[in-house]
Records
---
Amino acid sequence: MVLERIYVVRHGGDPSLTSYGIDQSKELGAHLMTLDPGVDKVYSSPFYRCLQTMSPFMELQHQRAQTGSTVTSMLPEHGIREWFGSAPFDHPEPAAPTILKSMFPSYDQGYVPVVTPSKRGETLEQLQDRIAMALRGIVEQCDADGSRAVVLCTHAAVIIMIGRILTGQFPVKVDSDDFKAYTCGLSVYARSEPVVASLARAETEDSFASRNSRRRLSHSEQGM
């Protein structure tokens, strides 16, 4: 069994979540419970606002623990964390894992991220490389353990880059209004035969395509 769906969501109104953002996250959590195929794993940016956004869904999963298969942990993937531009100084870092674990019981301290960005930020080219590497690692993990559907909770710039990488649709202008990133919005990427998504870099395409049995990902968006 291989990964069939990638559900990409943005955090709620921040920081930290406003009352509206909290309401959004509760609506999102309830909606995620209805998806088919159901969510098998949750990967989240380790920044507080993303973990907080996924908390209502994790609580609903916990309530269903006695009824069958549930998602029990949030995997803090630094490969999908916030993008900061390249700079000669250190950018903000997520809180320490021990602190996040005390706030979010489902936070998995034992998870080893696929990739971690530089504290000094990244160029757009480096961002694309980082996201492509993270996606390859996530898909590889899910294909190996039989997960059919996963949630990635992340940030606006990362969501846009995820959409471009997974579909192979790269605009001529990097600031084109192509993939949307509404707060608590949901984008669904589904594998389909047989075309390979053509990524911007040939080596990235070849590596990603081979790990995906040369399938591509189609895309749909759902506003919350």
---
Amino acid sequence: MIVNSFAHMISTKPVDRYTRPEFTENGPLAIDFGRHPILESIHNDFVANNIFLTEASNMAIVMGPNMSGKSTYLQQVCLIVILAQVGCYVPEKCLLRQFCMMETRNLSLLTAAKSKLSEAKKQYDQMVENKQLELSRHLKEISQRNDQAINHIKRKYELENMEIVNKEKEKVRYDFLADKAIAEIEAKCGQKIEECKEEQRQQLMRIQDEHTLLVTQMKQEHDKRQASLIAEHNEQLKRTQLQAENELREKTMFMRNDHEAQIKALRCELEDECQKLEEELHLQKSKEDRQRALLQLQWKVMSDKPKEDQEVNSKQVDLCFNLFVCVCLQMDAIFANFHVGIPLVVWFDILHLSFGRHSWGNEKTFLVYLNVLL
């Protein structure tokens, strides 16, 4: 079946793809354009490889990176050699192999192996016989030894049983003694525990007394320290209060002196301004006196004229009155610049002395004019 499958595979391939291998006596192993028979059927673009081995150089080093085809190359050479030995066509252009020498060498090796095998068989048979004899002798010795060992083991077993019984008896006695000793120890331990408890109670009482004494002492010391700290704190407060009072006094004195100096400066400035205002008022009064004198002279002149001329001059008086009002308004503006108002008495005196009550008619008209002027 295998040969038929190979024949079928070769018959389906082209003629130049598979060739008949050639065997020579002294020829080398030469493969030209060899291919892997299985991978070639899977991959159409298989890359062919060559190899050339002789007796002088019967080794080839295959190197390359991973997945470069090193193992495929080795499998290809092995499969081609096996197919050639079987008698099949191989996937290459040319195959030369040294066959006759290999056949004679294989025959010589086969005869040598047969002779070695017969010698080994004889040696093995002799060795088996010797082993059987030794085995029978050893079995006899072992049976004798087994009997002796069994007797010895029986004796040992009996002795061990006796020892176990004695040990059990001793164990019962020891258990009784141990229970008695444990009971005595427990009683002693109970007494010791009670004694320890009493000692601990006494120690606790002592410790509590010492603790109370220490607490009272610490309270007294704390009270003393607190009293001393309070006294120191009060002294510090007094000192700080005195310092603060002194600082306040100094600050108040300084501020008072500064305030007095400012007040003096303001007084001097006000006195200077008052002097200036008094001087200006004096000048203004002198001017008013002059104007008053002039007005009196005018009234005297007008009183000497006849009554016919008085009607004509009444118009002149009205004009003079208007002029006087303008002058008074200017004076008021001047006094307003100095933040000083003209008293009402001055206005009344000016009107009374300048024009006279008789020139205004009755008293009602005089008051009307005065209200208008004010």
---
Amino acid sequence: MYDIDIWNQIVTDNNYDKENYGYNKMIQQIETSPSAAVAKMELIFKNLSFERMKQISFSLKKESLSIRFFDLNKMRYVWEEMRINYQLSDIEYKKVLNFISLAERKFKREISVREAEIAMSILIFIAKQSFEWKEINTLSNGVSNSEVAASIVDNEESTSNEVYEKLIDENKNFMKALTVLQSSSKESVVNADSFGQFRSYMHVERSIETEILSVLESAQKKNAPSLIMLCGSVGDGKSHLLAYIKENRPELLSNFSVHNDSTESYDPKKTSLETLERVLSEFDDNITPSKSSLIAINLGVLHNFYNQQRSNGKFGELCNFIDRSEVFHQSGNAFQEDSQFKLLNFAELQPFTLESNGPNSEFFLNIINKITDNHPLNPFYNAWMKDKENGISTVIHQNYSLLCNPKIKHSIVQILIEAMVKEKIFISTRSFYNFIYEIIVPVNEITQTQSNFDLIKNSLPNLLFAHPDRSQLLKALSELDPLKNRSSQKDEMITEFLLSQNKQSFINDKFKAIENQNSGIPNIEGISKENYLEVTKLLIRQTSLLSDYESNESYREFISYLFAYYTGDGDKISVLFDLLKDVVFSWNGSPMEGYIFTGSTNKEFNIAVPVHLVEDVDETIFGSMNGKESIERFNPYLKVGFNQDKRYFFELDFALFSLLKKIRKGYRPNKQDIQNALQFNELHEKIIKSAEKNNKILLLHKKTNAMYEVSKPRFSNAKFEMKKV
């Protein structure tokens, strides 16, 4: 296929407007306005990215990522996940990064024609990979590739007893034991049905586990077969829990047909939806099932199945049950049941909780404890101790020792939560294991003869904050580097260090004052004056981790509003609406109280319309967790808006909240800000359109600042009346 054919096929497949997105039109726009052309290409890139992920995950028989992760601001993270977990080719990955870099430049400077041409050629390359995959994998029955690419169930990784035995072998050292935490480790990925002793040790209980066990125990007491569906998205732990139950409570599954691994029932001659229909065939209308079934299923696949069966007029009772569960809505029930069907929803189940005094994550903390605890079944601790007994001590041993510190554990957990909220990143259990590996093990080769300077550069605090190029998660954490948050206390500590006569004694005293112990203190013997800057960086980072965790005011405010929204604290949310109202009036500016400028391009006048804003929330979500002290089912944003003859909502996440606070203080949003605040900008435009139906406007003369009120009289033959204000 020629480039023009590939491009026009992209436009056709995604139902884009050919007048605006066609090949010739895009070439023309590249020549006249390359930055605007690249902005258009970003939407195409997002859809191509999602399609490629589904194709690759299908080929590997892995769960596909949810569409909610494909935010334009997070595409680096998404493709990084695809590279690590979906075996993406280096060529495609490098081209993708090039496109993302080009797209990010458009708000910093004008993009050249040549750069826009390169961006278009990259999209054509990605589309070509997609089309070639379709040619190879298209099935003879002609079912759509999007259905083929969707996976039925979770397919999380697990670790076998054989790997576990290797880890606790006395002849294996600590470094080798840690490799099982790596996402890329072959040893960490084996059959999900074989839970094994290692995974049993690493298992961390969550509330959803109690719910599943309760449902299974209840089903065992009933004579009639039932269908239990565990619904969610990739990485949420469905498969892990099923494997755990199989190993530890097998009696609960004795009367169930369990469908967990997509390879169990996969038939290359059938699409995923056809396979799912066969799996659920006994639960079609007017059929008496012979056995209960338990299935872990992706919400996207369930939605496709639901739409198909509604269209075909089959599985009516099951579809009605799905309707009642509202599982496809943000406010859907966590658990729904009737006499035959039961549904547990993993969606919106976060790895951290919201509480009145701030966020917390017992889940992340318990995993770290599993890795660091002095326990006979802990292969990491045992290997670390064995090395220690044999006189082996490297930077990874020192970093592990730091990770054992409760204060550092707490700080790491809080930093991760802050990154998840601020950057909207998703951290699966597998990603979290890999993260622990990355903050213990440096990139470079480890030897026992490392200098003190090398030990400092490769220490845990520096691995945590100073390696944004290593992964998208570490890139997000680098934005929370304590070095980026200056304070007089930090400046004073740096000055005291540089002026001290005995710098090692200064460091010893500083850490003893915080920790009251000698372990984990950096040794700076032999470090030259030229490298003192690196010492001060470690000093700031490590003391910050060892001190009470401090987040910035905007983050604490946002978390408190999020908790108030779900618990229904109207007084608290009213304060938030004060902010939102102020920004609505200052977004384009306001000539006087009750009016906002429309942003009109009239050369002589600025036009303002009257608005009357009534605060509005989504009642299905607001107060849905009233009375709860700890919330683990939520989205990291608030659905809020205004009612002006019609309800207008937008999703307020941290990034937008932070921007709106700046605007309230007088900051004027630039093009990139408006792009990032797209939902709020659309809300503002809808409010203006609604207000334009009013029979009154204000005109502000640009040269003289004279203001006129133009209105349509109710009982007069005149079309308009104008008076000076």
